[in-house]
Amino acid sequence: MISKVLIANRGEIALRIQRACREMGIKTVAVHSTADADAMHVRLADEAVCIGPPSARDSYLNVAAILSAAMITGADAIHPGYGFLSENAEFAETVEEHGLAFIGPTAEHIRTMGDKITAKTTMRALGVPLVPGSDGALVDIQAAREVAEKVGYPVLIKAAAGGGGRGMKVAQTADDIEEAWSVARAEARAAFGNDEVYLEKYLDRPRHIELQILGDAHGNVVHFGERDCSLQRRHQKLLEEAGSPALTDAEREEIGRTSTEALARMGYRNAGTLEFLYQDGQFCFIEMNTRLQVEHPVTEMVCSVDLVREQIRIAAGEQLGYTQKDIKMSGHAIECRINAENPETFAPSPGTVNVFHAPGGLGVRMDSAIYAGYRIPPYYDSMIAKLIVHAPTRQEAIARMQRALDECVVDGVETVIPLHRKILADPTFQKGDYTIHWLENFVAAQTKS
Ligand code: ADP
Question: From ligand 1's centre to the CA of 340, what distance in Å?
């Protein structure tokens, strides 16, 4: 039984988790930095504890302060949300050592998947197809050259500890490999304190397709179909869809079966996402995220499931209570991430939201923690809202998103809403005919014109 959950996060995801808890009759504890004293997640929680100064390192990443807050308030479980401590195996371990439930996978699985090289070796052994590349870490530049010759240029040098698109460099030809090798390693060392790198063939026109998985502590594993997250800028997702306009039912079924079988053999528990690049009908695993993802609402809309509620039930030791054949995808869902950024330069635009009006109506969902008068602090991620729509067909979902974006008012700061409008109106997007490289080119063309 879980009766009080401490949410070790902020912003829209803290609210999202509170909502599930409230509907389940579970009390919530918010934690916050001094910069977030007026935040909505603090106002709406049953209890709130200040855990430190604005810098995330001293507050939302401060394990001792978060655990103390859980002890003082008598919480019996911690939900990490996404980002911050959500993929920190030591944190998960410490939470459990203190007798609390960690609402997520085991520390061992977080650790295995947190190292992308180990993740790939593990998945290969479980029969999941990979992007062609090096078998493990590259020992030196000579090894990088040899693998690159074998798989063929262009290639990508990637950090084993990578995340957020950092520590990743393309070498178009043999002339670039030395630079890609040293830049990727330097970036990896600076960002993750670990300069281990590996090499993958750089796919020229893949889609990013990911599978949402849930497993319980009793060996049951199911998937909730795919999300297409190909619309990215600097390897960061901007707009996501469920399902993918590119997949057939047979392809979905096959990758779903491969993924759930692999995770069942691992004994995977709680929510996880297997990320693939998909090109010419082939799926290639790139990484696994051992947490709830930003874009989870599109899956919730098409599958009529509350993924956070399921995460909490699983952490409490309950059985899933359903099997794969009970899960049906219906209609189409789209999510637009609304970042407080200049829509052309993407420079962050913190400041005060003077006017805020959230769109509504049939099939419209706004996950946000902002309000009129809210001051967006400069210390954290620039995403201030997620607008999600659901409709019977993709075409109707696009029209609904366009209508919802027209209703949305965020005054006082710049947002990427104008860019979303342009994307939704574009014939190539409307046809669903895009790859992971499409948005960068689209943005470049917009800025030129
Ligand atoms: P991170 O953990 O930093 O997000 P990922 O491995 O998930 O890194 O990759 C992020 C994005 O980078 C992918 O969604 C894709 O757009 C691009 N990418 C990664 N690997 C490749 C590859 N081998 N070829 C082409 N693009 C890639």
Answer: 24
Structure confidence by residue, pLDDT tens digits, 72-107: 999 999 999 999 999 999 999 999 999 999 999 999
Cα–Cα nearest to 164, from 335, 405, 383, 338: 383
Residues in contact with ligand 1 by the CB-under-6-Å rule are 131, 156, 162-165, 200-203, 206, 208, 232, 235, 275, 277, 286-287, 436
Residues 179 and 212 in one domain: no
Q: In what order do the strands lie in the sheet with 236-242?
A: 282-289, 270-279, 207-215, 221-233, 236-242, 332-339, 383-391, 364-368
Average pLDDT over the chain, rounded to whole? 97
| The model's pTM | 0.97
CATH of the domain at 163: 3.30.1490.20
Is residue 291 annotated as part of the catalytic site, yes or no?
Answer: yes
Quote the ligand 1 centre to 9 CA distance (angstroms): 25
Q: Which one, of 225, 253, 251, 255, lies nearest residue 240 by Cα?
A: 225
Do 63 and 160 fall within a single domain? no
272-300 pLDDT tens trace: 999 999 999 999 999 999 999 999 999 99
The alpha carbon of 313 and the centre of ligand 1 are apart by a number of angstroms equal to 32
Q: What is the pLDDT of residue 254?
A: 96
Model pLDDT, residue 165: 82
CA nearest 73: which of 51, 48, 40, 96? 48
In a domain, 322, yes or no: yes
- Mutation test of ligand 1: which of 87, 277, 278, 284 has the most ligand atoms closer than 8 Å to its C-beta? 277
Residues 212 and 361 in one domain: yes
Taking CA atoms only, the protein residue closest to ligand 1 atom 20 is 286
* 102 in any annotated domain: no
Pair 189, 59 in one domain:
no
Beta strands in 58-206, from DSSP E residues, in sequence order = 77-79, 101-102, 155-163, 166-171, 197-201
266 and 153 in one domain? no
Given 185, 252, 291, 365, the catalytic residue: 291
Beta bridge partners of 277: 208, 284
Q: Is the pLDDT of residue 447 over 90?
A: no
Range of the domain at 73: 2-84
179 with 240, same domain: the answer is no
What pLDDT does 166 receive? 87
